[in-house]
Amino acid sequence: MENEKLDKILSEISGMKQEISGMKHEISDMKKDVSEIPGMKHEISDMKQEISDMKKDVSEIPGMKQEISDMKKDVSEIPGMKQEISDMKQDISGIHLHLENVTDRKIELLAENHLHLIDKLNEAIRVSDKTLIYETEVAALSEEMKKIKKRIEKIENKPA
Fold it and tell me: Is 24 left (phi over 0), alpha (psi -120 to 50) or beta?
């Protein structure tokens, strides 16, 4: 019986050794996990920063909603702008037609009449040039007449 008790104790000690060996193994794993904690702290810090950034982005959403609302409003005004552009195109076409049909024709008439005016001006200049020559000749003859009159007066006023 004592042998049995010893065997039983031995068996229990052997089981305890196995449990202690398992515990040593678990403690070793725990130490390994604990050694990774500083890296995890850095990762947690990064995650906190990312969460902070996300909160900041979320706080900007109302402003973005307003901007989107404004953009929708602007987009809703596009059909009216399209109509205005269409009206402007029609106006421009009308102006273009007016230029072709009315203004261009009147410019052609002016150009044609301008040639006649230039011819008349050139003729008037020739006449004016002749008139200037005649005026110069008349002035010279007038001076000559004055001299002759003075001579005649001198001759008449001389005692004979």
Answer: alpha
Distance CA 19, CA 91 (A): 98
Q: How far apart are CA 28 and CA 22, in angstroms?
A: 10
> pLDDT for 51-77, tens place per residue?
888 877 767 667 777 787 777 777 777
Question: Cα angle vertex 107, ends 106, 112, to 5°?
Answer: 95
- Among the residue ranges 15-19, 48-52, 76-80, 124-128, the one predicted with the least confidence is 76-80
The token pair at 14 is 């052997």
Cα(6)–Cα(12) distance, integer angstroms: 10
Structural domain boundaries in the chain: 97-160
The per-residue pLDDT for range 108-125, each reduced to its tens digit, is 888 888 888 888 888 888
pTM above 0.85, yes or no: no
With b for 16 or more beta-carbon neighbours within 10 A and e for fewer, the 34-60 pattern comes to eeeeeeeeeeeeeeeeeeeeeeeeeee
Give the position of tokens 């996300």: 54
